[in-house]
Give the backbone structure.
Amino acid sequence: MTEKEFLKTLKIVRELRKKCPWDKKQTHRSLKGFVVEESYELVDAIESQDSEKLKDELGDLLLQVFLHSVIAEEKKEFYIEDVLKNLQNKLIRRHPHIFSNKKVKDEFDVLRNWVEIKKDEKKTESIMDILSLNMPSMILAHKVQKKASSKKFEWENIDDVYKKLQEEIDELKRSKNINEIEEEIGDIFFTLVHIASKFNVDSEIALRRSILKFIKRFKMMEGFLKKDGKNFENLSLKELDGYWNKIKRSELKDTIKKEYKKSYRKR
């Protein structure tokens, strides 16, 4: 961002805070839901691989940074320049292998350094104390496991994690009441997040993709049923599965066609 564009954006946001009935009523607290919402919309844009959408959502998220900074400025708490200086200092401090003489072997060393530096900054006894417990559970589980991994407390072999998953499933089957069931289901989710991490997969995004895939297929099934003059209530599960499998087969054909076209273009 050029200085001219930065200052122009800041001027617009300051103007909105003075003149717009909605903007001038906002507070840090009233805006916090929008920060979460814009973050998820940014993730959707990344998943869509649409550069125009990505550009738009990055702007929406950046707006939240400007709004919160201007609100703080009005209260004489800090200015957006302070936010930037703080970020600059933090990046330099947490990357001693770039801006100092710290030696690292790989990205795991970088992660371990980052965790320890952040722990020292927050002046906490445990590396777990630097986590925000308000984040979604899947993300929190991933963060917790990353922190433990930075201390080399994790399974080295993926097969050991699979065994742990089976162990948790067996414990769920033996559960006798709702509290035990809830606990074991939680343990299963926690183990699944660890498996995802082993493959460098973001479990939150993976689950979201599966949900969106299910929604898409369900809508297609509704369309097929409507076309055939049928409805869910009058069909057996076996008949509904027939429609579901028909949709999956059509998706597979589309995937094969796309892969064929892609390989053909490379010739």
In short: Residues 3-90 form a domain with the Helix Hairpins fold (CATH 1.10.287.1080). The longest helix spans residues 237-265.
